[in-house]
Design brief:
The chain is mainly alpha-helical. It has two domains: 178 residues, Cytochrome Bc1 Complex, Chain D, domain 2 (Orthogonal Bundle); 187 residues, Cytochrome Bc1 Complex, Chain D, domain 2 (Orthogonal Bundle), CATH 1.10.760.10. It has 14 helices and six strands. Helix 2 crosses helix 7 and helix 5 crosses helix 7. It is globular.
Length: 378
């Protein structure tokens, strides 16, 4: 409500607020933009194509790579990273260093976008995503749409769509306003309902929750717990820091996108703001909200099953030969894509887990699914 008042006041002061527009708020404008395929060159993709509200705001398409990568508007280009969920993204702090001097926050897997608006401005101009040639072309399309021609001046000032820079920035701000609504962060999972006394966890879920938050039995909460603040009233299950956990190359994806095995994803070091080799291979800790319905997993979609992810972490602490086998390949876990800078202090914390405890953690992680997606759980 405060954002709406601010936008409307600015418009009134600039003399552009006349009749109420059909898109009744900046959030409503942003919602329409989020689903508008005209923001892509061939008019085949919108933000929602790779961040589908029906699939936890991730990309539900197979794209020939079991969903690991997203297909571009040109119908053949594939990226190199799995589309992160846009759900709960508003709680990631602006990219920078936290109180302890560690890099945290931002958007995308490497934090290269400082905030939601900066993130919204990336895909439309990316040649292998939505493929628009420049800001002027996109803003011209906005100007040709009567709904946008009516709404943008109201919320962002007269002549905003006559200036490509202003118009493009306004578009990103409107999309960001929509992404800050409760549609993206309802906090209504079984876990949330349990905290409110509205749902009784099963014995297995209860065990999983105990294990998850115990620094004696697992290392989960070392990275996937955030103290609640006024800005994040519910647990978002990420500290938004960056770690190299030793994720292997997704060879099938690299073969499909043409980058080949010689390419190395440097993670945080690929962020233009970072030039420290000690950041190579580090990726932002994702939220675990809706994790059970938003596979495949890791920044490159290399793992299909949530249980595999827990087994991957468990391999660092288990001496069992069985635990050194990737259940999805039937062979030993592949080597890290970036072998230096591994977060061994965090990864080797805690004892090895038996099947009962691994299954309990999976059961708990399923309770982090928003109510609207519970029908997607297997």
């Amino acid at each position: 409500m405060q954002r709406l008042i601010t936008f409307s006041l600015l418009a009134a002061l600039s003399g552009t607020l006349h009749a109420a527009p059909r898109l009744a708020s900046p959030e409503a404008l942003g919602r329409t933009l989020f689903f508008d395929s005209s923001l892509s060159l061939n008019r085949t993709q919108s933000c929602s194509t790779c961040h589908d509200p029906a699939k936890g705001f991730t990309d539900p398409r197979d794209n020939g790579v079991q969903g690991a990568l997203s297909l571009g508007d040109d119908g053949h280009s594939l990226g190199d990273r799995n589309a992160p969920s846009a759900a709960y993204a508003r709680f990631s702090p602006p990219f920078g260093k936290d109180a302890e001097g560690e890099w945290h926050g931002g958007q995308f897997h490497d934090g290269r976008a400082a905030d939601l608006a900066a993130q919204a401005g990336g895909p439309p101009l990316n040649p292998i995503e939505m493929g628009m040639p420049d800001k002027a072309t996109l803003v011209a399309r906005l100007r040709d749409n009567p709904l946008y021609a009516e709404a943008f001046p109201v919320y962002f000032g007269a002549g905003v769509l006559d200036d490509p820079e202003r118009g493009y920035a306004a578009m990103t701000q409107a999309i960001a306003a929509f992404e800050q609504t409760d549609e993206f962060a309802p906090f209504d999972s079984k876990y949330d309902r349990h905290l409110r006394g509205e749902y009784q966890l099963t014995e297995q879920e209860e065990l999983g929750m105990t294990l998850f938050f115990s620094d004696q039995f697992t290392n989960c909460a070392l990275c996937h717990q955030l103290e609640r603040t006024p800005a994040a009233p519910g647990e978002t299950f990420s500290n938004y820091r960056y770690f190299n956990i030793g994720v292997p190359v997704n060879r099938a994806a690299r073969l499909a996108n043409g980058l080949g095995e010689g390419h190395v994803d440097q993670g945080l070091l690929d962020n233009p703001a970072i030039d420290d080799p000690a950041q190579a291979g580090k990726f932002k800790v994702p939220t675990l909200r809706n994790v059970a319905v938003t596979g495949p997993y890791m920044h490159n979609g290399v793992f299909q099953d949530l249980r595999t992810v827990i087994l991957f972490y468990n391999k660092y602490n288990s001496k069992s030969a069985k635990r050194q086998i990737d259940p999805e390949t039937g062979t030993r876990w592949a080597a890290p894509e970036v072998a230096q800078n591994l977060a061994l202090t965090e990864l080797e914390h805690g004892p090895a887990l038996d099947d009962k405890r691994i299954d309990a953690l999976v059961a708990f992680l399923k309770t982090l699914t928003d109510a609207r997606y519970e029908g997607l759980l297997q």
